[in-house]
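From the thread on structure requests for the teaching lab: each student submitted one protein with a one-line request. Submission from student K.M.:

"Model gibberellin 2beta-dioxygenase from Tripterygium wilfordii, tokens only."
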Amino acid sequence: MVESNPPLLNNYLQLSKKISAPDCEDEECKLVTRECQLPLIYLKALNSPDKSERQACSEAICKTSSEWGFFQLVDHGISTKLLRKMRREQVRLFETPFEKKATCGILNNSYRWGSPTATRLKQFSWSEAFHVPLDKVSEPACYEEFTSLREVMIEFSAEMSKLARLLAGVLAENLGSKIEEFDNICHESTCFLRLNHYPACPISPNISGFVPHTDSDFLTILYQDQVGGLQLMKDCNWVAVKPNQDALIVNIGDLFQAWSNDIYKSVEHRVVTNEKMERYSVAYFLCPSYDSLIGSSKEPSIYRNFTFGEYRKQVREDVNKTGHKVGLPRFRILTPENHSQELC
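Reply posted by the TA:
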């Protein structure tokens, strides 16, 4: 079998040798997966001269954020031409030999692959990515010979930032907050783009492209290809998201769930591998500065106040110690009621 670029197979086999017994099949792996079409939002209505249309669009965004934590977005204002340029440049970047991606400092030395902290096979991700802070996107030195990628990244990140702040404003207003709060705390140094590549995985359908997780941000906007593989947890079942070439995918992150006091849902999701086809996606993450205080907009608060820096530190500690993220439960205020509450 020919090794992949990066050498994921070798990495996976080395991890297998370290494990004395195979992973037991988790209950979540036994759950039936069905394909679904995510709720569809036509964002153009948000700029309608008709007040009732604007209100209906805002209500739909907030409702799906509460019921699903995910939705599809069309008429979002980002041109198809720009999206296609981003995809072409992304494919060209990932076709670069592994040694160069891993050692030459492309995109601010942000290259990642596999799962260095994995201690079990179920924690292994069959993927590679570039994780780029927005304040580094325009730096020419980050791109080596990929000068055309720089131009596209600058334009793409600006459009995604504008869209993310628009959506955050709608969601914040529904909670009685103002978009200015996000403008004041969400900085380019902590917001970032993640360019993802999931190579074909011919050895096992049980290997994750990206392990189950929630996002440690306010919200995420995803531009994916048509291969499919994204799945989310809905009603205690894994649901496969049917790709829509005209839509971006938006999901709520942990910080908005805490801010909204669980009105909006940060939903667990994963990427499954494909035996024959590789998959590409680009995600934009709206994040605050590390010293920003995250507190509930409602009382009584379900979570204690915490800074984004404190949250990120706790996530890293949990991942390094256990191999997986714990997230918001670490910051939940325990009461007799929620202490006994059963989770999926």
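TA comment: Residues 44 and 75 are 5 Å apart (CA to CA). The chain is about 35% helix and 20% strand.
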